[in-house]
Specification:
- This protein is mostly helical.
- The chain has two domains: about 100 residues, RNA polymerase sigma factor, region 2, helix turn helix motif (Rna Polymerase Sigma Factor, Chain: A, Orthogonal Bundle); about 60 residues, Arc Repressor Mutant, subunit A (Orthogonal Bundle), CATH 1.10.10.
- It is about 75% helix and about 0% strand.
- The protein contains seven helices and no strands.
- The two termini are about 40 Å apart.
- The relative contact order is 0.08.
């Protein structure tokens, strides 16, 4: 089997982690334009050093580390600004943001596990509603059901998913350790 194209792999991983990475940088920089500049610099560095990234490891953590160092570099360039966070403060914010991202990624994995446990027809209803963005009225003829029946089914499925995620996360063997 041919190895994946590094450029495609990089774009795929970056696209998957871009929004949380942007939010991460925004937590440490008071101005949105500065955060955008830092994020762009970080992306260039990630691309240049992508060959050093080990496939199968946590791309999000790797990207956050690069972005954090870009925040520090930016901070050094902007020493004269009135609002200046200490390095200890920035480290504390970065650690807290890391925990938040890890928690959300864990919840996402649990949700995917719960989705896999649903019957195929329930997954199809979710796919039509949330992936294809169909209205209930557009779904009704495709599923040969009334709008009311689809509404009730979606409600039950969402409730089942909520229960599954909540129960899974409340089990001691499923907690994240920080």
């Amino acid at each position: 089997m041919p190895s994946p194209d590094p450029a495609e792999e990089f774009v795929f991983l970056l696209a998957r982690h871009e929004r949380p990475l942007g939010a991460y940088v925004m937590t440490m920089v008071p101005h949105a334009q500065d955060a955008d500049d830092i994020l762009q610099e970080a992306k260039v560095i990630m691309w240049r050093h992508f060959a050093k990234f080990e496939p199968g490891t946590n791309f999000g953590a790797w990207a956050r580390k690069i972005a954090f160092h870009q925040v520090l570099a930016h901070r050094k360039r902007k020493q004269r600004d009135r609002l200046d966070f200490s390095e200890d403060f920035l480290r504390a914010v970065a650690e807290e943001a890391d925990r938040g991202v890890d928690h959300l990624e864990h919840r996402e994995r649990v949700l995917h596990d719960c989705l896999a446990k649903l019957p195929a027809d329930h997954r199809e209803v979710l796919h039509l509603r949330y992936h294809e963005n169909l209205s209930l009225e557009d779904m009704a003829p495709r599923l040969d059901r009334s709008v009311g029946a689809i509404y009730r089914l979606l409600s039950r499925v969402r409730h089942c998913l909520h229960d599954c995620v909540t129960k899974t996360l409340s089990r001691p063997d499923n907690e994240l350790s920080f």
